[in-house]
Amino acid sequence: MSATGAEGPGACNVSFSKFQEHMWPAVTVEFFLAFAGNAFAIYRFVARERTWHTGIVYSFNLAVSDLLYALSLPFLAAYYYPPKHWRYGLALCKLERFLFSCNLYGSIFFLTCISLNRYLGIVHPLLVHGRLEPRHAKLLSGAGWLLVAGLSTPTLHFSELQPRGNCTECLGSATDEQLPHYLPYSLFLAAFGCGLPFLLTLFSYAAILRTVCRNPHITWLEKRKVGRLVSVGVALYAVSYLPYHTLRNLNLHLRQQCLLGKAPHYQHALFVHSAYQLSKILVTLNICAHPLLYGALADSMRGWCRAPRGQDRAAPAACPKLWGAAPPSSARRQPPSEPLSEWGL
């Protein structure tokens, strides 16, 4: 797959750098947005949230995960700046790839926890009322960090530095020799780290939307708000997580075919590789978008964003209740003392 269209095993190592030359400005912008947004979110959680419910616990851990990875983005932006060259040694190369993997699957894990938390609170409120406490969310978050670290640890083995002319590449996947072992690992991550959480999230939001839409006592505006939040949750997978895992494994498959002497058409491989690079930008863009989701879970952040000019923004906004002032008898499944805001809706 050379630039002239030649095909052969030697083409497997060709780096399509033209598209990557334009990635460093996007990564730079993402760093500033992600650092500012997530640092501000963590500050509001710590300094302004008097009572942490389960949704706040998951959101705080998601913000910490995003901020940790955002701190590695300046190195990545400098790496992509032409000529593409990693100047920081093997240890930082492995650390950057490890942080990316931890953030990716940590984000998916905590977003899934948030969606399941909303599902239990809205679809089965009596089941969790008085039983689902912040300490449970903290324990689950701790287990989540251990799980994510375990899933990401193999990247420390596979990530390597590879000479490319006068430059050095920090591989995000594996060398050609390690590819037969890396591809099954990548497929496992796609199934267990993305596919399963996506199905759980889709099920949760479908049940939430069905429950809310079938309740005649909820206004159309409230239903539309819930619909928007559900759409955002599903869109995170549709525009970033699912395309990224699909394109990553397709790109790895083309590399493997090339190594077996079955080199794909150059234009096809170029399109897949370029789309894969774009999907990495979209995945990283999520750490800039997540702070917008925190606002739906944090009373203090809603109060800061919505307070009229001249009003004390430190005072949390009042929590709207799902059923209004007087819940009807048909709404017994929703405890009247539980505000909808506690579940991020």
TrEMBL record:
Region (Disordered): 321-345
Segments passing through the bilayer: 23-46, 58-81, 104-127, 139-156, 185-208, 229-247
GO molecular function: G protein-coupled ATP receptor activity; neurotransmitter receptor activity
Superkingdom of the organism of origin: Eukaryota
Database matches in InterPro entries: GPCR_Rhodpsn, GPCR_Rhodpsn_7TM, P2Y11_rcpt
Boundaries of every G-protein coupled receptors family 1 profile domain copy: 37-294
Biased composition (Low complexity): 325-334
Record PANTHER family: P2Y PURINOCEPTOR 11, PURINOCEPTOR-RELATED G-PROTEIN COUPLED RECEPTOR
GO biological process, one term: neuronal signal transduction
GO (cellular component) term, any one: plasma membrane
Presence of the UniProt keyword Phosphoprotein in the record: no
Protein name: G-protein coupled receptors family 1 profile domain-containing protein
Keywords from the named record: Cell membrane, G-protein coupled receptor, Membrane, Receptor, Transducer, Transmembrane, Transmembrane helix
Gene3D superfamilies on file: Rhodopsin 7-helix transmembrane proteins (1.20.1070.10)
Native organism taxonomy: Eukaryota, Metazoa, Chordata, Craniata, Vertebrata
Annotated family: Belongs to the G-protein coupled receptor 1 family.
Main location: membrane
Localization per Swiss-Prot or TrEMBL: Cell membrane
Pfam families associated with the record: 7tm_1
Membrane topology annotation: Multi-pass membrane protein
